[in-house]
Design a protein that fits this description.
MFS, cell membrane, transport, Putative membrane transport protein, mainly alpha, disordered N terminus, 1% strand, transmembrane helix, 491 residues, 77% helix, Growth Hormone, Chain: A
Length: 491
């Protein structure tokens, strides 16, 4: 009776989750096209204004898995509301900011709200009927990418008609509505994970993430061989090894290394890394390509608003495929969707690389990329949610989102290095820079096909995930009839 009552209004729960996740996704990207505007308004420099993005990236990377773990332990609805509160406070502070330090502080607070995504996945798994979980997870996963894409589209009109302050007022309104609705309407899940936060491993996690993300973000300006960048990347490597060792020995690990060794989980995380490389770099550099003056011999001389509209098919494709992802996964399997998504998005990037002379070329390319990412993001999240026990949904989804963010930072740094190589004295990159850069992104996302091949086939998803997890936790159960190791799904 309790389960029936909890799930009676899951559609209402889903509506609340979508508003909260959409606001978070918008905050990820709304500032990207208008950094020059913020530079002028906040009275800062081109180099310093990038901290508006970097601060948010670092905060979200650290907070996302921690918030997911706290939700698994203390209640996903409770921590979801806390995450929305952080987004609201950060958005209010950003909307009122008139100086760079205040804006950076606001973005750090907003980053704490990164937990909304894994927490939303956990709530869906706990509250929805089993047959509805895949579709709902797919839509929420696609919504994160759609929101990020729409942020690129909407930023120009918002700043032109209103002001940069409304880049934060609008998400603030959405977050407040979602937070109040979540507190009143979303039921708290009884699913809990025993234990407590291991703050030592949390500190180590933060350490290698900060070193890695700072290293790759500084590399394009300082050079990949500079002592600071090399030192940061070396520190990240040392700390991550220490972190893995500490988590493996911990009684209460923040990130269960046993869970991370499940084949579906590590394969989906590898896909997330590669897709992150492709998606976030494209969001940053496609508008730059479109806004390049035609006097450079390429580009369209588009305004911020016009370039955003040319990227609209990307968001539409993600959304439409996200809506259909549940049914497609049931019929074709999440692995096959990941493979298809990787291939289609790679083709889209190659179109951008070699065919960018007319607006039709761009619309075709962005449509292909949108369809590819819509398939891949939804399937990837479903794989992770299905592969782990219910009480680990939050932390597993959080780490998957985190790895995607790391991929985004790495992709942006590599793209900057490739595109700006040989730039003129005026700072305009050569056309070959964009060609080489988008070829690189196409190769990165196409490698997702290889990673996806390690995910078990759909027909064995349910039993395989459970058996694989059990085998890793209990080696004495790892042998089945015929001496085959559980989890070794040779097809």
């Amino acid at each position: 009776m309790e389960t029936a009552t909890r799930r009676a209004h899951y559609q209402l729960t889903f509506a609340v989750l979508t508003v909260g996740v959409a606001a978070y996704a918008l905050l990820q990207s709304l500032v990207i096209p208008v950094l020059p505007t913020l530079e002028s308004a906040l009275g800062t420099t081109q180099a310093d204004v990038t901290w508006v993005l970097t601060a948010y990236l670092l905060s979200a990377s650290i907070s996302t898995p921690v918030m997911g773990r706290l939700g698994d332990m203390h209640g996903k609805k409770r921590v979801f509301v806390i995450a929305l509160t952080a987004l609201a406070v950060g958005s209010l502070l950003a909307a009122l900011a008139t100086s760079l330090p205040v804006m950076i502080a606001a973005r750090v607070i907003q980053g704490i709200g990164g937990g909304v995504l894994p927490l939303a996945f956990g709530i869906i798994r706990d509250e929805f009927p089993e047959e509805k979980v895949a579709g709902a997870v797919g839509i929420i996963a696609a919504l994160t990418a759609v929101g990020a894409g729409l942020g690129i589209v909407l930023a120009g009109p918002i700043v032109t008609v209103l002001s940069y302050h409304w880049l934060f007022w609008i998400p603030l309104i959405m977050v407040v509505l979602a937070g109040v609705a979540a507190q009143i309407l979303v039921p708290e899940s009884p699913v809990r994970t025993a234990g407590k936060i291991n703050w030592l491993t949390a500190l180590l996690l933060s350490g290698w993430l900060v070193a890695l993300l700072l290293g790759v973000s500084q590399a394009p300006t300082r050079g990949w061989g500079s002592p600071i960048v090399v030192g940061l990347l070396a520190a990240a490597a040392v700390i991550v090894v220490t972190w893995v060792a500490a988590e493996s020995k911990s009684v209460n690990p923040l990130i269960d290394m046993t869970m991370m060794r499940i084949r579906s989980v590590w394969a989906a995380n590898l896909v997330a890394l590669l897709m992150g490389v492709g998606m976030y770099a494209a969001f940053g550099f496609l508008p730059q390509l479109l806004q390049t003056p035609t006097s450079a011999g390429y580009g369209f001389g588009a305004s911020v608003t016009e370039s955003g509209l040319m990227l609209l098919p990307l968001s539409v494709g993600m959304f439409l495929l996200g809506l259909a992802s549940g049914r497609l996964a049931t019929r074709l399997g999440s692995r096959n969707l990941l493979i298809a998504g990787s291939i289609v998005s790679a083709i889209g990037y190659l179109v951008v690389a070699f065919l960018h002379e007319t607006e039709v070329d761009i619309y075709v390319a962005t449509s292909l990329v949108g369809v590819g990412f819509g398939l891949a993001f939804s399937a990837m999240s479903n794989v992770v949610v299905a592969a782990v026990p219910a009480e680990q949904t939050g932390v597993a989804s959080g780490m998957n989102a985190n790895i995607r963010t790391i991929g985004g930072a790495l992709g942006a740094a590599l793209m900057t290095t490739v595109v700006t190589a040989g730039a003129s004295s005026s700072g305009v990159p050569p056309e070959s820079g964009y060609t080489n850069g988008f070829v690189m992104l196409g190769i990165a996302v196409s490698l997702g096909v290889v990673a996806a091949m390690f995910i078990p086939a759909m027909k064995r998803d349910k039993t395989t995930h459970l058996e694989e997890s059990a085998a890793l936790r209990h080696p004495e159960l790892a042998m089945v009839a015929g001496g085959t190791l559980v989890g070794d799904e040779s097809e």
